[in-house]
Write a structure and sequence with these properties.
Elements (H helix, E strand, L loop, with lengths): L1 H31 L10 E2 L5 E2 L5 E4 L23 H10 L3 E7 L10 H11 L3 E5 L15 H10 L6 E5 L2 H11 L2 E5 L4 H5 L13 E3 L2 H9 L7
Parallel strand pairs: 3-4, 3-6, 4-5, 6-7, 7-8
Antiparallel strand pairs: 1-2
Helix pairs in contact: 2-7
């Protein structure tokens, strides 16, 4: 009888210890979990299934969005807006993949090289850059408003474009390309942005931006804040 009591006490003690360890591990995992601001929450669809809506990547236009006037400026002479590098850094800290995507037809004229643009974007912290180097009259599939560069990025980086965002200043190119690819659409008022929203609005009348930002920094903050459409 004494042996039975000893055995029973042994297993009971170890069972309580096992339960304690499991609870302690669960509490530790909860404490170390990222906050909702760091990783945007999933949602459920109409059938109650979990649908991952976290933003995977952000595509950012160069001229008029990151800096400049909206016109061609050689990479060596290009100056970002004072807030642009801060915005890019903020997005990277949130874990978003960052891609530059830009039309640069002056490359076809020999006025700059793709390598010079890629070096510029790499220095800003972009994960990769997509550049259309073709002349404006070439029938290529990459020049915005074609979604070619976005589709290429999706293939190369295994992206769900419905979980990506495009930030640009030209409605008739950036926003139309974003709409064709099915990404979130954010237009900034810098560069050609103000004109795109007023006198040239008819050139992209069928597209509605998801957000109108004052500038790239405002756009970054909006994405990071976790807009309902980005969750």
């Amino acid at each position: 009888m004494k042996i039975v009591n000893i055995i029973t006490k042994y297993f009971t003690t170890n069972l309580y210890f096992f339960i304690f360890i499991r609870k302690a591990d669960s509490i530790a995992k909860k404490a170390s979990a990222p906050s909702p601001r760091m990783i945007q929450s999933d949602q459920t669809d109409a059938g109650g299934m979990i649908v991952d809506k976290r933003i995977q990547a952000v595509f950012i236009d160069r001229d008029g969005t990151m800096g400049g006037t909206g016109h061609f400026i050689h990479p060596r002479d290009f100056v970002p807006y004072p807030f642009s590098l801060q915005a890019i850094s903020m997005l990277k800290r949130e874990g978003f993949k960052l891609f530059a995507f830009t039309n640069q037809h002056r490359i076809s004229r020999g006025e700059a090289s793709e390598a010079e643009f890629r070096e510029q974007f790499a220095s800003y912290g972009f994960d990769h850059s997509y550049i259309c180097p073709h002349a404006m009259d070439e029938n290529c599939g990459c020049r915005k408003p074609s979604p070619g560069m976005l589709l290429q990025a999706a293939h190369e980086h295994r992206l769900d474009l419905a979980r990506c965002a495009v930030i640009g200043d030209v409605g008739s190119t950036d926003m139309v390309a974003a709409a064709a690819a099915g990404t979130m659409k954010i237009i900034v008022k810098t560069g050609w942005g103000e004109s795109s929203l007023t006198e040239y609005r008819h050139t992209w009348a069928d597209v509605e931006p998801d957000y109108i930002a004052e500038d790239l920094l405002d756009a970054a903050r909006w994405l990071i804040s976790g807009p309902s459409s980005a969750k």
